[in-house]
Each structure stands twice: as structure tokens, then as C-alpha cells.
Write a structure and sequence with these properties.
Layout: E1 2-7, H1 10-18, E2 24-29, H2 36-50, E3 54-60, H3 65-70, E4 78-83, E5 86-92, H4 97-108, H5 122-133
Parallel strand pairs: 1-3, 2-3
Antiparallel strand pairs: 2-4, 4-5
Helix pairs in contact: 2-4
Family: Belongs to the thioredoxin family.
Region (Disordered): 114-134
Domain Thioredoxin: 9-104
């Protein structure tokens, strides 16, 4: 289960994320991001599917631009996975439930998902094969 914590200042970020030994999911968002709320719900569902406790924090990049800049956040949503207070992986943009769950599972198991992708998801490849077979 994930309990979302809104980060209000850089001191809270340092205390809750950088000083934590527990795995953390950090969602960098801004007010203009229309899909961020849904994406956050998918991240929470990933924690529930894994059946493990987890903590997630939300950073409003409009409110904390220096923090977003320090982590080179260029678009939204950007999700950063932290372990032992260090960023171990991040990804930009919306992800489906399976992808989010796999990435969080990798973080919890100590092996972030760093596989190279061809740029086409397996579901898209399957759809292309289906159309070609018809």
C-alpha cells in the first residue's frame, strides 16, 4: 500500500527521501499535467498489487523548481525511484499498470528495470502482428 506524501519544501524532501533507507517512489508533477493524478493512482495500485508496504511522495515542480532542476526534470509526469536515499531509476511520461508494477518490483528487489527497449511496447507489437495476420 502506498501513502502519498506531498513535499512542501526541500528540507522535507531531504528528510523523507534522501535520508530514507526504504525504497521510495517520487512523482514529479506540475499543475498543467492533466494525466498526473491518474498516473499517481496507477503507482498506488502497483504497490497494492505487489502486496508490500511502500512510500510515495509527490513533488510539485511549480512550487519547488530548484528541486526539479537538481534532478533534471524536463517533463511530467516524471517518476524517480530512490533506494537508500539515492536515485536509481527514473522515467518520463505515462506508463501502463504492468510497466509501473514491474519497475517498482525491481526497485524493491534491488534490481531496477534497465532493459533497453526497441521503442515499441510488446502490446503494440502484438497488435501489429494481429493486423498483419488478418
Amino acid at each position: 500500500m502506498s501513502d502519498w506524501i506531498d513535499i512542501r519544501d526541500e528540507a522535507a524532501f531531504a528528510r523523507l527521501v534522501m535520508d530514507s533507507r526504504a525504497p521510495m517512489v517520487v512523482a514529479f508533477e506540475n499543475e498543467a499535467c492533466t494525466g498526473c493524478h491518474e498516473h499517481r493512482a496507477r503507482l498506488s495500485a502497483a504497490w497494492r498489487l505487489l502486496g508490500r508496504p511502500g512510500r510515495s511522495v509527490r513533488v510539485d515542480a511549480d512550487r519547488l523548481p530548484d528541486l526539479a532542476s537538481r534532478f533534471r526534470i524536463v517533463g511530467f509526469p516524471t517518476v524517480a525511484l530512490f533506494s537508500g536515499g539515492q536515485p536509481v531509476e527514473r522515467f518520463l511520461g505515462w506508463r501502463n499498470q504492468a510497466s509501473l508494477t514491474r519497475r517498482i518490483a525491481g526497485l524493491l528487489d534491488g534490481v531496477p528495470d534497465r532493459r533497453r527497449r526497441s521503442g515499441v511496447s510488446s502490446s503494440r507489437q502484438g497488435a501489429r502482428r494481429s493486423r498483419g495476420a488478418a
